[in-house]
Design a protein that fits this description.
signal, 242 residues, disordered N terminus, alpha+beta, eight-stranded antiparallel beta sheet, PEP-CTERM protein-sorting domain-containing protein, Ice-binding_C, single chain
Length: 242
């Protein structure tokens, strides 16, 4: 069965993503969710790359992230490595619709496929970043609070039997369940394959996903009604005691 692990290099990518994040201008394109309005960086993902189900946004990954490493048959000691990576600050911004707030615990995921030979193969994919609370101002996200790293990864290696399969991974940040009106994630996307000796290692990414959770926030008039009800109950209780 494929093993999935977090390498030290991915932890380093989380830290580097946090350092690189800024309120720099991006080509943000809007798309609506159930309780969330999303803005994605079209320069990074591509125009029309996004689709939304509920409050989860899926983004098509560019074809250049598909990587393959092949060592020709009969070569026992040859090696080949292929990789690709890119960074967006901020890759996705989520803004709660009126009457809702967003939890700062965010999920990130990857879908795709991999192939490794019986020996000498490794195929990896990672989506790493940092979660920020902030505000959307004049078409740009202004971060106020960096919260935590957000890693999602898949790592498959030879185990004596050739393997080829699809994968769908989703992992969640370790943020406490605090709330914000706007939450953003920067996106550091990487694919990597390595082959030692005869064989082929391949990694194909289909989509990257970010899952948000929205909760209803009572409107001011709701609080007024609740307060009025409490006052009325208090008055009635005092009258009964009198």
């Amino acid at each position: 069965m494929p093993t999935i692990k977090l390498s030290r290099c991915l932890i380093a990518l989380v830290a580097s993503a946090a350092c690189l994040s800024s309120a720099g201008a991006a080509n943000l394109v809007q798309i609506d969710g159930a309780h969330t309005t999303f803005f994605y960086d079209a320069d990074f993902w591509g125009v029309g790359a996004a689709s939304v189900i509920g409050d989860t946004i899926s983004l098509q990954v560019r074809p250049e992230f598909d990587v393959t490493a092949t060592v020709r048959p009969g070569t026992a000691t040859g090696t080949q490595t292929q990789q690709n990576s890119d960074f967006a600050s901020f890759g996705v911004v989520a803004v709660a619709k009126t009457g809702y707030a967003l939890q700062t615990r965010v999920g990130s995921g990857l879908t795709g496929s991999y192939a490794v030979d019986a020996k000498g193969s490794e195929a990896q994919a990672s989506l790493v970043g940092t979660v920020f609370a902030g505000a959307l101002q004049n078409g740009a996200f202004v971060p106020q609070t960096p919260l935590t790293g957000l890693p999602s990864w898949a790592n498959y290696a030879s185990n004596g039997t050739a393997q080829a399969a699809n994968f769908n991974v989703m992992m969640y940040s370790a943020n406490p369940l605090s709330y914000a009106n706007a939450v953003a994630v920067d996106s550091y996307l990487t694919t990597y394959v390595h082959q030692v000796g005869s064989g082929t290692a391949a990694m194909t990414l289909n989509t990257a996903q970010y899952a948000f959770s929205a909760v209803a926030v009572p409107e001011p008039q709701t609080y007024a009604m609740l307060l009025g009800g409490v006052v009325a109950l208090s008055v009635a209780s005092r009258r009964r005691k009198a």
